[in-house]
Amino acid sequence: MSQQDVYTVSEVVKECLGWPYLTRGRDRKGIDCFGLFLHAAARLGFAVSDYHYENVSEGEYLWFKNFHTYGDAINLKQARPVDVLMFRGGRNIVNHIGVITERGKFLHASKAGVVITSYSSGAWSERIHSCYRFHQK
Fold first, then answer.
1. What is the pLDDT of residue 15?
2. Which of 83, 79, 82, 49 is closest to 66 using CA atoms?
3. What is each CA distance from 132 to 19, 33, 83, in whole angstroms?
4. Average pLDDT per block of 10 residues along the chain, 137 residues long
5. H-run or E-run covering 44
6. Do 32 and 25 contact (CB within 8 A), yes or no?
7. What are the angstrom distances between the C-alpha of 49 and each of 6, 88, 96, 117?
8. What structural domains and CATH numbers belong to the chain?
9. DSSP for 3-33?
10. What whole-number distance in Å separates Cα of residue 7 and Cα of residue 53?
11. What count of other Cβ atoms lies within 10 Å of the Cβ of residue 80?
């Protein structure tokens, strides 16, 4: 991917907002949170070429490995658009991921489809597991 092919966060939002949800979906016909992350990562020029996830319990838990090899964990107070949030479910296992679009908001695939939601208060704020800044290609 050349430098001019890299999208901005607002372009990714414009492209993906409203796509329907589909477990293990990977495109505009239907997408889940990890599929949206992979799509956004490609569009934003993240250096994510190898990844692994598996369902620990179908539709309930996702386990992400080796994210530290593609980016650096950062303090949420340092977060900016393009940074990636990971959220935990039961047993403190990461089961959701989204891309920060602006201070306090993130793009993610929920059962309602691809939406922008606040992470700064409410249930999402209590589930934040980590925040990463990914390396560019």
1. 96
2. 49
3. 24, 16, 6
4. 69 96 93 91 80 49 62 93 90 86 96 96 93 88
5. helix 33-44
6. yes
7. 15, 24, 20, 27
8. 3-134 (3.90.1720.10)
9. GGGPPPHHHHHHHHTTPPB-TT-EETTEE-H
10. 25
11. 11
Dihedrals phi, psi of 45, to nearest 5 degrees? 80, 25
Instruction: Please answer whether residues 84 and 132 qualify as being in contact, where contact means their C-beta atoms are separated by less than 8 angstroms.
Output: yes
CA distances from 39 to 7, 54, 67, 71, 108 (A): 11, 18, 16, 17, 11
Which residue shows structure tokens 């691809």? Answer: 114
Q: Token pair of 95, please? A: 């089961």
Strands 53-57, 61-64: pairing is antiparallel
Residue length of the chain: 137
